[in-house]
Amino acid sequence: MAVEERRFASAAEAADALAAAVTDDLDRALAQRERASLVVSGGRSPIGFFERLREAAIDWPRVVVTLADERWVPPSHPDSNARLVAAHLLQGTATAARFVPLWNGAPTPAAAIAERSAALAKLPRPFDALVLGMGEDGHTASLFPGATGLAAALDPHGKALLTAIDPPGAPHPRLSLTLAALLDSRHIHLPLGGAAKHAVYRRAKADCDPLRLPVAAVLCQSHTPVTVYLGP
Fold this sequence. Notes:
- The chain is an alpha/beta fold.
- It is built from eight helices and ten strands.
- It has helices at residues 11-30, 47-53, 81-88, 109-120, 150-153, 179-183, 195-207, 216-219, and strands at residues 4-7, 36-40, 63-67, 69-71, 98-100, 129-131, 162-165, 174-177, 188-193, 226-231.
- The strands form two sheets. The chain has a seven-stranded parallel sheet with strand order 1-10-9-6-2-3-5, with helices on both faces. A three-stranded antiparallel sheet has the order 4-8-7.
- Strand 2, helix 2 and strand 3 (63-67) form a beta-alpha-beta unit.
- Helix 1 (11-30) crosses helix 2.
- The protein is globular and about 40 Å long.
């Protein structure tokens, strides 16, 4: 299954296209079943997309939103992905969506796995739309190169939904969806802006070595369609 590449002259155009594609995914899902599921990522890059998607005429009360990963901090913390989603996506009519967080107040990500896995197991699956990000080190979700347990988390046939990750060189321990959980999606969207990330993407796609560049596990698989949005 080939990766579809879409190129854009501006970040605004890329965000518009991503929001339109995710809206189509959710509308299609809601025409087929009672609820739709959306998985999103944190960081600063999805803010423009979030602010466009929340304006879409989606039947938000029937949408369940969760995260691909979370830094192990409470939602009041500036680094919380849940905080970012609340501030930029779950606004206006989108406040009617149901949000399922990954952080649950447990002392460590590992201590939260059983309870949060049970919560995620109730979401409509496959996930109807998954929006990932990628760091310049090739990590996606919180699957960081060099992290303890990375090989197990990258097993496409693994049974676990969640993995605890202590990323080398990045702040905060994390709770992340495993590769198997990420691939249990109808459509994966990967927006990438800037020459540095474009170069990492090309390298990952060519080398297909997920232990070196974990995003390769998403790009070099044939289970789930992937659309990459290449912005400036």
